[in-house]
Write a structure and sequence with these properties.
Layout lengths: L4 H7 L5 E6 L4 E2 L6 E2 L6 E7 L2 E2 L5 H10 L6 H5 L6 H4 L8 E3 L2 E3 L2
Parallel strand pairs: 4-6
Antiparallel strand pairs: 1-4, 2-3, 4-5, 6-7
């Protein structure tokens, strides 16, 4: 893939990807100033790619985040209170709502 860190950063500038999560809480979007209420989301998440905090929440990160909420023993399952079951996850009305810098994702 790459012979050293310098080459890796050049070839794959958006890797690695890290997602930080917490329980839902009210926050203001740094993008548009909109208040995102904790009642509107199931968790708060931020993504770091290429060493930078992202203003958006990439769809690929969203998919991985949602799936991890229904896997027992993951940090996300713990944040969600281990309350999401696979059967519920695939029901449209049970989708995970992720609060992120530009607003909300899912629903």
């Amino acid at each position: 893939m790459a012979k050293d860190e310098k080459e890796a950063l050049k070839k794959f500038p958006n890797l690695p990807k890290f997602v930080f999560v917490s329980e839902p809480r009210d926050f203001y979007s740094p993008i548009n100033g909109k208040l995102i209420k904790k009642s509107e989301i199931d968790l708060v998440a931020r993504v770091i790619t290429g060493g930078k905090l992202r203003k958006i929440f990439p769809v690929t990160s969203g998919i991985a985040t949602e799936v991890a909420t229904c896997i027992p023993g993951t940090i996300l399952a713990e944040v969600m209170g281990n309350s999401i079951k696979k059967e519920e996850f695939f029901e449209k009305e049970k989708r995970i709502r992720i609060g992120h810098p530009s607003g909300g994702y899912g629903s």
